[in-house]
Each structure stands twice: as C-alpha cells, then as structure tokens.
Amino acid sequence: MSSLPVVETFHSLQGEGLHAGRSAFFIRLGGCTVGCSWCDTKHSWPQTAHPALETQALAAEAAAAQQQGAAFVVITGGEPLHHNLDGFCQTLTEMAPTLPRHLETSGVDPFSGSFSWITLSPKAHKPPTQELLARCNELKAVVHGPEDLAFAEAMAAQAPQAQWLLQPGWDSPQGQQLAVEFVRNHPLWRLSLQSHKWLGVR
Q1: CB-neighbour burial class of residue 57 (10 A; exposed 0-12, middle 13-18, buried 19+)
Q2: 3, 112, 143, 190 - which has most CB atoms within 10 Å?
Q3: Residue of 120, 114, 148 lying closest to 133 (CA atoms)
Q4: 40 has catalytic annotation
Q5: Active-site residue, 39 included
Q6: Which of 94-103, 105-114, 162-171, 191-200 has the lowest mean pLDDT?
Q7: How far is CA 170 from CA 44, 58, 151, in A?
C-alpha cells in the first residue's frame, strides 16, 4: 500500500486564483526544498515531520468531501511534485471518478499524476521546468518588488496557453501597488488575492 507525507487535509474554499471562492478539499503534502522566504506554510517543509498516510485513505477522504459539497480536490504543499503522484491520482480516479483534481506547484520537479487543472507558481530563485510551463492552466506569480514583474512576464512568454495572474505578497504594500497597476495596464493579466486570509478561513 502506497503512502504520502500529509501535513493536513481540510474542506474549505479555494482562496486564490481563477477558482477562488469555490468549495474545495485540500490535501497538503509534506516536503519542500524550494525555500521561499515569504512562504506561509513553512511548517510543511520538513517531509519527515509529517505522518505517512495511505493514499487509499486520502482518496476516501476526498470522496467523502465531494459528498459534502467539494467541487474539486487540491493537491498542494509543500511541493507536491517532490513525490510521484501517478499512483495517488489513479486511486483518486477509482474512488472519486467525477471529482476534478487540481495541482498547485512551483514546477521544479518532473511532472507526475493526472490533473484537470494545474496552477504553476514559479519562483525566480528556482525556476520551473519547461514541461510544467507548457502544461499549466494558470500561471500565478507572486509580486513583492519590480523584479517580480519582469520575471512574471518572462514566465508568461513561455506559457502562452495559461491564464496569467499576479498575486501581491501578503502584507506587501509595494507588491500590492505594483500588481494592481500592472494588471490595470496589461489586459491579458488578472489580479489574484488571498481571499481566504481576508476572510479568516483556512
């Protein structure tokens, strides 16, 4: 029986990106070596700090959440692609065949699994692979300073099939000002806000 390190599972609303505001079941996997200074889930970084749970039990949780109203399941982290997700996605397909699978990744690892929606959040200090740039449905770049806008445009040029979003870094007035002004002047871009933090929900 296969297993994955799990930080937490919870049923809430998607707070970011194009699916913001929709009911979602989150599976947060442990382990991340990307090391973003602004990360709000640093507790997820050490993989061995989190229990290994059987993928069949996780899939059963997701299926139960769908019965409770979850529109899709989100595999997030940490960095979920540090793990091979082929078997897990197959188990999810078997146990919850009509539940869409979403992935949130920085794109630094080889792609695995099967997903109906891929959110790529690229990082300048560890850029994503070309494979993930070509596969992603939405490209979401976090903005703290002017250099992040240049990086976002460089990434978008390599992901023409994706929807492009800028997300101000949390508690970053400069990032907020830059992102809002950039989106106002670039009609192909959208603004993404961490609405779950404003609402005070998980």
Answers
A1: middle
A2: 143
A3: 120
A4: yes
A5: yes
A6: 191-200
A7: 18, 30, 18
C-beta separation of 50 from 5 below 8 A = yes
Read off the CATH number of the domain in which 129 is found: 3.20.20.70
C-alpha 33/C-alpha 46 separation (Å) is: 9
**Which one from 19, 25, 26, 76 is the annotated catalytic residue?**
26
Domain, as residue range, for 43: 3-199
For 147-189, the pLDDT digits (tens) are 999 999 999 999 999 999 999 987 889 999 999 999 999 999 9
Residue 61 catalytic? no
Alpha-carbon gap, residue 171 to 103, rounded angstroms:
25
Task: State the catalytic residue, choosing from 104, 109, 138, 148.
Answer: 104
**What token pair was written down for 158?**
């390599």
User: In 3D, which of 146, 180, 145 has the Cα closest to residue 166?
Assistant: 180
Q: How many domains does the chain have?
A: 1
Encode pLDDT of 23-73 as tens digits.
Answer: 999 999 998 888 787 777 777 877 788 889 999 999 999 999 999 999 999
Say if strands 3-13 and 52-54 run parallel, antiparallel, or are unpaired.
Answer: antiparallel
- Structure confidence at residue 198 (pLDDT): 57
Phi, psi of 38 (to 5 degrees): -90, 5
